[in-house]
Amino acid sequence: MTGTPSGEVPLLFSGPDAPSESDLYKCVHCGFCLQACPTYLETGLETESPRGRISLMKAVNEGRVGLTDGVIRHWELCIQCRACEVACPSGVPYGRLIEATMAQVETKRKLGLIPRIVSDISLRRLLPHQSRLGMAVGALRLYQTSGLQRAVRKSGLLRALSGQLAEMEESLPAIPGTTFRATGQVIPARGEVRARVALLSGCVMPLVHGPQMHAITRVLARNGCEVVVPKAQVCCGALNSHVGDLETARNLARRNIDAFLDSGVEAIVVASAGCGSRMKEYGHLLREDLDYAEKAGRLSAMTRDIHEFLVALPFEAPSGTLDYRVAYQDSCHLSSAQRITQPPRDLLQSIPGVEFVELPRASVCCGAGGTYTLTERDFSLRLLDSKMNDVEETRADVVATANPGCLLQLQYGAAKRGLPIDMRYVVELLDEAYRAEDRQ
Ligand code: SF4
Ligand code: SF4
Description:
The structure is a single chain. The chain is an alpha/beta fold. The protein folds into 4 domains: 21-108, Fumarate Reductase Iron-sulfur Protein, Chain B, domain 2 (Orthogonal Bundle), CATH 1.10.1060; 113-170, no CATH class; 186-311, Up-down Bundle (Glutathione S-transferase Yfyf (Class Pi), Chain A, domain 2); 317-439, 3-Layer(aba) Sandwich (Rossmann fold), CATH 3.40.50. 52% of the residues lie in helices and 8% in strands. The chain contains 25 helices and 9 strands. It has helices at 21-24, 38-43, 50-61, 69-76, 83-87, 94-105, 113-126, 130-145, 148-155, 157-161, 163-170, 205-208, 210-222, 238-242, 246-261, 273-280, 282-285, 293-302, 306-312, 332-335, 342-349, 372-375, 377-394, 404-417, 426-439, and strands at 186-187, 195-199, 225-228, 267-270, 303-305, 325-328, 355-358, 398-401, 422-425. The protein has a 5-stranded mixed beta sheet with strand order 1-3-2-4-5. A 4-stranded parallel beta sheet has the order 7-6-8-9, with helices on both faces. Helix 24 links the parallel strand 8 and strand 9 (422-425). Helix 15 packs across helix 18 (293-302). The longest helix is centred in the last third of the chain and has 18 residues, at 377-394. The radius of gyration is 22 Å and the shape is globular. One iron/sulfur cluster binds at residues 36-39, 50, 53, 78-84, 94.
């Protein structure tokens, strides 16, 4: 469909979640953002750049272009890494624009069968319900530990059914025996109490990275924090927002607001960059909600990424030594959405024995991006491949990062290439150094 130059302009974006015109028309098409955009760098195509995507949003908004599959496709290929926001001298809030745009096209997207099934099941039926998610991850662990996974892989059955399905199965993370549960527990501070904080447990992270969640509470306690883990908390809603399902995201946000604001803490600490970024923007997400707008703003103001929190506290540098060469991959939702780049590096460089090495193009997305690994598999793997070339260049023993999606993606990248490189959370390494100190 083309536009209607007759005068009457059918605005194809509509409703309270439509991209705001003041945000859209901030873009002056200067192109400074192009070299920061991973999908532009991969394709060299204007339509796969921030400027091109914004132009399409404007064209649709003005009725010059219809919401065709081809147009939607360019927005779908955006990882929502928000690197363009950092590069933009005009302050275009691209994250808000693409979130609002995806909400407009949510029901019109044409995903492949497998990504649609996986994404619908995980986003709508599992993530909002921690007990169901726990059962699903438990079943996955049984599949992995019972020998069934080995048998399925050996049989080649999945590959015969679908190469994509087999490849997705191969990228499943190994589920550990230790999980982390939000039960309303209070973890006491070690020594003098310096702060009382609440911890976001999250949805996937406590099940897939349970040991690391325990490490996070140990690091907080070691630095004098009493840690409250509210039982009523739920998934932050970041993944639902990513695909434009803002209604579910808002419902989850309201439940978290009720769970956290009553916990009597001075800060809400979040160890996953994507969740921290989402919670810091609850104020915007619930701006039209008369009952929750003010509370959402308050929760956002209390939310702290764990690296920024520890450095501001300030944390105590460990005296235990780790003999690793460590590179750091910026998680987009930490570096671009929250603009936090130095604190994770400060934490790593405080560890005696760590040889810190900068990863070339550390701020370029690894291809994880919310549900991107499921819905845009090919592109996600192209970006991962470029990232792993850079990782190999560092000759690091360990690559540290700050987000579960990035960690899993990098782990898969290393496994595919047979690289003996450990992928770890920054705070997990700090915990290891504190434990080495305790043994001294
Ligand atoms: S988003 Fe910003 S940097 Fe990119 S073209 Fe528009 S104004 Fe320029
Ligand atoms: S969010 Fe990332 S992938 Fe999307 S347009 Fe901006 S830089 Fe490109």
